[in-house]
Amino acid sequence: IMGQVYAKDVMGKEDPRVGLLSVGEEESKGSPLTLSALPLLKQSSMNFVGNVEGKDIANGTVDVVVCDGFVGNVILKFAGGLGEALFYLMKEELNRSKLAKLGVLLVGSALRRVKKRVDYSEYGGVPLLGIQGVCIICHGKSNAYAIKNAIRAASEFVKHKEIGRAHV
């Protein structure tokens, strides 16, 4: 519920699609916790689309992914590491030949925009929902730019008056 409120009011999603992270789309799959959460989500008034898999997180199938905190943290750290690794590999490959370097001149601005969209420091952090107050969780290696953006994220949270609504 808190994720849906945040997606709607802060991220501007009209009717956020909510999915339950599992090991398959079938309702019979998942951990005991996932299996017990499924009927609760199905009975809710949210736009619940059912079970989703890891691939659905990145491809935009849903706006809100429901999972336990341990799994969520592992996913966030994996995604961050994967993004860094992919950009490192692209940079390495683009520096291998003069032709590739010429290509960078043509697509360089697009690559910078993509990097900006996936860089954690651009977002600063994510809100810890369900508490009375504002708490933005930042990456342990956050630099000054990321902290500045975390403060901006906290300000947006307050501006949208989510403090009272997100505490369910």
Please provide a written account of the structure.
The chain has 168 residues and is mostly helical. Helices cover 58% and strands 11% of the residues. The chain contains 8 helices and 5 strands. It has helices at 2-9, 32-43, 54-59, 69-94, 98-118, 120-123, 144-159, 162-165, and strands at 17-21, 47-52, 64-66, 126-127, 136-137. A 3-stranded parallel β-sheet has the order 2-1-3. The protein has a two-stranded antiparallel ribbon with strand order 4-5. Helix 2 links the parallel strand 1 and strand 2 (47-52). Helix 4 runs antiparallel to helix 5 (98-118). The longest helix has 26 residues, at 69-94. The mean pLDDT is 89.
**Structural class of the helices, strands and pairings?**
mainly alpha
- Determine the oligomeric state from the structure: single chain
Q: Estimate the global geometry from the Cα principal axes.
A: globular
Lateral strand order in the biggest sheet: 2-1-3
Taking pLDDT < 50 over at least 5 consecutive residues as the criterion, the unreliable ranges are: none
Total strands: the figure is 5
What is the average of the pLDDT values? Answer: 89
From N to C, what is the helix and strand string? HEHEHEHHHEEHH
Biggest sheet record: 3 strands, parallel
Report the sheet-strand fraction.
Answer: 5-15%
Radius of gyration (Å): 19 Å
Distance between the termini: 8 Å
Work out the helix count. 8
Helix content: 55-70%
